[in-house]
Specification:
Length: 424
């Protein structure tokens, strides 16, 4: 406790204009039509002078002023003898001399509060950490695959990641040659190992989790209701298939609740024996403001929808165009994408596959904006004769450049969890 000490509050003027005088976090005194804000502290011979850069002033005040005012309010506002004047050395600093109270207690850590430009810069940058989980699921072995993923992410501590992305059909495997072969693995809402695993991961880490799984079919009306009003119109070829299951993606929030579900719209040949197509692309939002509007798609959704034929110059670019039209800032693509076969001796990432992904998202890179982030979570390994490309990656559009920045890319055969900050 500090007693019998005359305190001086040094006040910094925020560019001769500041916030609403009614905001008690900011307003100390109004002098010469200036609202003054506390940013540094003096006690006897201890002078903690704080010089903030232009970018850091408002953020720094918002962090510290409420706590400072809550401690000093009895002194500053409780005594009519407090007065305010301009320091003649500079017109931009004002001093307030409150009375001293022997009964006033100061917290022991008062002078250890972080009040530096470096803290301000850190606060101005809010990280958004995405965890890519790339592994080799074993088909029809759900329990083993769930255990494998949990082992992979066991090293992650709660609060160290904001979003976990798993591949398409993450826990069941992907290659089911017939409708009958997949039926035992179709997961209903009341009995879904994939949902339960995602909820457990989300609750432990305090993050969002996105994963693919096989879901039961819907009636046409149920499919429209799930897709919502902003859903894109699926291809004519997709509309004809009824299927016995759906190739789905779920989004689980940190409380373990499913907040969004999407059904794959564009069918790959492996899907055709059993998959009911969805009703088009959809969007959703989360409290993670840096994500912006989000859309989840699945593997073949990136390709031209039948009967369209794609050319790099003319398109069509169904998924990328949808993202632009619906102001999607973050696209999450869950994949079981096949290896290109190019340079098979190269165990690093499949460059031909990554190049193709980039090419199919061309409108995003040519938009002139740097706001688009694409998260591609692919699987690796071999399943029933199909070899997968791995090479999970995160791409960011760049203003005035026609190619994205690759924030990270995993190896072709790498099984790992890669956490990347997509807010940088």
């Amino acid at each position: 406790m500090i007693t019998n000490t005359r305190l001086i509050i040094s006040v910094f003027v925020l560019e001769r204009k500041v916030a609403d005088p009614r905001d008690s976090r900011f307003a100390l005194r109004q002098s010469n039509s200036l609202i003054l804000s506390t940013t540094s502290l003096v006690s006897t011979f201890l002078y903690l002078n704080l010089f903030l850069g232009h970018q850091g002033r408002l953020n720094q005040c918002m962090r510290h002023n409420f706590r400072i005012l809550s401690h000093f309010r009895p002194c500053i506002f409780g005594n009519s003898s407090s007065r305010c004047w301009i320091n003649r050395r500079t017109e931009t600093r004002v001093l307030v001399r409150p009375f001293t109270s022997e009964q006033f207690r100061f917290p022991s850590n008062l002078f250890s509060w972080p009040m530096t430009d470096s803290v301000t810069k850190e606060e101005a940058h809010t990280p958004l950490r995405v965890g890519l989980v790339q592994f080799d699921p074993k088909v029809e072995n759900v329990e083993f695959n769930i255990k494998r993923v949990k082992e992979r992410i066991a090293s992650l501590e709660p609060g160290t990641v904001d979003l976990i992305c798993l591949p398409e059909m993450a826990f069941t495997g992907y290659v089911f040659p017939t409708a009958e072969s997949i039926l035992p693995f179709v997961e209903h809402p009341d009995k879904s190992p994939s949902r339960d695993a995602c909820a457990e991961i989300a609750q432990r880490l305090g993050c969002y989790v996105v994963a693919g799984y096989p879901a039961p079919t819907l009636t046409p009306q149920e499919s429209k209701e799930q897709a919502g009003e902003d859903a894109s119109d699926p291809a004519e070829g997709a509309k004809k298939s009824e299927g016995t299951a759906r190739n789905n993606a779920i989004v689980v929030d940190p409380k373990g609740q499913v907040i969004h579900e999407y059904t794959k719209t564009n069918m790959f040949e492996t899907d055709l024996p059993w998959a009911q197509p969805g009703s088009g692309f959809t969007t959703f939002t989360t409290p993670l403001e840096s994500l912006g509007t989000v859309s989840v798609a699945i593997c073949m959704d990136l390709n031209p929808h039948p009967p369209n034929v794609w050319t790099s110059a003319e398109g069509p670019y169904e998924l990328a165009d949808y993202c632009i039209e619906h102001n999607v800032q973050t696209l999450i693509l869950l994949c079981a994408w096949l290896d290109s076969g190019a340079s098979p001796e190269d165990t690093q990432f499949d460059a031909q596959t990554v190049s193709y992904w980039i090419a199919r998202l061309r409108p995003l890179w040519y938009s002139g904006s740097d706001k688009y982030t694409v998260i591609i979570s692919n699987r690796t390994g071999t399943e029933r004769g199909s070899k997968f490309a791995g090479s999970s990656t995160v791409l960011r559009s760049q203003a005035n450049k026609h190619l994205p920045k690759i924030l990270t890319v995993l190896g072709r055969e790498e099984e790992a969890v890669r956490v990347v900050d997509i807010s940088e």
